[in-house]
């Protein structure tokens, strides 16, 4: 299975979050991920959270990058133990946001009355894997979602939560 890597530059402006979502939806469609598919909804939420963090917390331009499985219409998603060259499952979608800020991302635990501060908690709950690393003077935060498992529908069911984590 081939992968498609696409990226866009994001200005340090909150309006860029909406632009990033629209751009990502069009790129997901190219890889065979329908906009009404639960996977697309999950990925758009993850993209929104990571881009928002970069725009709001750093004040720096950023680069959003998607690594998508490229498949033709009607081709089944990856089954079994198939792997990409980087070791990820063949159907994995990777989202990365790189920025020039050296400030490390910080997962917060906020009370239910808080109106913000849940971005990385959402990423942790919805992605199969996520992390970050320093890159030059800045950093790159990333998350991956394996295409072969159901999303959103089971993400919040306690009985399924453990099975959704790697």
TrEMBL record:
InterPro entries: Anti-sigma-factor_SerPK (IPR050267), HATPase_C_sf (IPR036890), HATPase_dom (IPR003594)
One GO MF term: ATP binding
Signal peptide from the UniProt entry: none
Keywords: ATP-binding, Kinase, Nucleotide-binding, Serine/threonine-protein kinase, Transferase
A Pfam family hit: HATPase_c_2
Domain Histidine kinase/HSP90-like ATPase per the UniProt entry, residue ranges: 11-142
Top-rank taxon, per record: Bacteria
Protein name (database record): ATP-binding protein
């Amino acid at each position: 299975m081939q992968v498609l890597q696409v990226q866009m530059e994001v200005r340090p402006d909150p309006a860029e979050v909406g632009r990033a979502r629209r751009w990502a939806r069009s790129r997901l469609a190219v890889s065979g991920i329908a906009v009404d598919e639960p996977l697309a909804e999950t990925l758009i939420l993850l993209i929104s959270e990571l881009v928002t963090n970069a725009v709001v917390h750093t004040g720096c331009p950023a680069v959003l990058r998607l690594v998508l499985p490229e498949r033709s219409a009607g081709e089944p998603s990856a089954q079994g133990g198939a792997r990409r060259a980087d070791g990820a499952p063949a159907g994995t979608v990777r989202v990365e946001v790189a920025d020039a800020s050296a400030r490390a991302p910080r997962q917060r635990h906020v009370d239910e009355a808080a109106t913000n501060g849940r971005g990385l908690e959402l990423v942790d709950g919805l992605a199969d894997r996520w992390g970050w690393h320093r890159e030059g003077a800045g950093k790159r935060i990333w998350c991956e979602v394996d295409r072969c498992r159901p999303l959103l529908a089971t993400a919040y069911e306690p009985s399924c939560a453990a099975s959704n984590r790697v």
